[in-house]
Amino acid sequence: MKKKWAVFISGTGSNLNAMLDIRENIRLVVSSSSQALGILKSKRAGVPTLILPKPIDWNQLNQTLESFGINAIFLAGFMKIIPESFISDFKGTIINLHPSLLPDYPGLKSIEKAFQDQKPLGVSVHQVIPEVDAGEILVQRRTETLQSLESSEFLVHLSEQRLVREVIAKC
Ligand code: GAR
Fold first, then answer.
1. CA distances to 12, 19, 86, 143 from 108, in Å
2. How many domains does the chain have?
3. Which of 15, 85, 86, 150 is most deeply packed, by most CB within 10 A?
4. Domain CATH code at residue 37
5. Which domain covers residue 155, as residue numbers?
6. Residue 2: pLDDT above 90?
C-alpha cells in the first residue's frame, strides 16, 4: 500500500524541502514550533501544516493523523522525544533521520563529535522505538570527511537531503 506521509519538523526544514519535490506522497507537515522555517516551505508547497501546542497532546495528535489517513511518519529534524504510548498507539510506520552512522553518535551535535573524534561521518534512517536514535537501521550512507567541520557538515546535509528524497519516492 502506498504510504501517506506526515513529516515532523522543528527547525529549518531543509530535509522537508527536499522531500517536497515529491509532494504527492506528503499529506501533512507537523511542527513542534511555530517559529520553524520549515513551515514556510510546507505552506509554499500547499501542504496542510499543523503546529503542535505546548505541551503536546499526543492522543489528540494521533487522532488528527488518523483523520488525515496518515500511515507513515518521517521525523526530519523533529527535536522532541516521542513517548512510548504514541509509538504503540500509532497504526503505522515511524522513521527518523539522523546525521551519523548509528549506532555511533546518537543525540545532539553528532557530526561535530564524530569529526572531532576523526570517526567516519554519514547519515542514517532508522525505525523509531522509545529509545532515542535507536531502532532498526533501514539505510545508511557514509560521507567524505573534508578539511573543516563546516565543509564536512555540508556534505552530510547534502547526503541527508538525497537520502530522504529517495526514501519518500520509494514508499
Ligand atoms: C538534520 O541534520 C537531521 O538529521 C537532524 O536535524 C537536522 C534537521 O535539519 N536530526 C537529528 O539530529 C535527530 N536526532 P532540517 O530542519 O534542515 O531538516
1. 16, 23, 22, 18
2. 1
3. 15
4. 3.40.50.170
5. 5-170
6. no
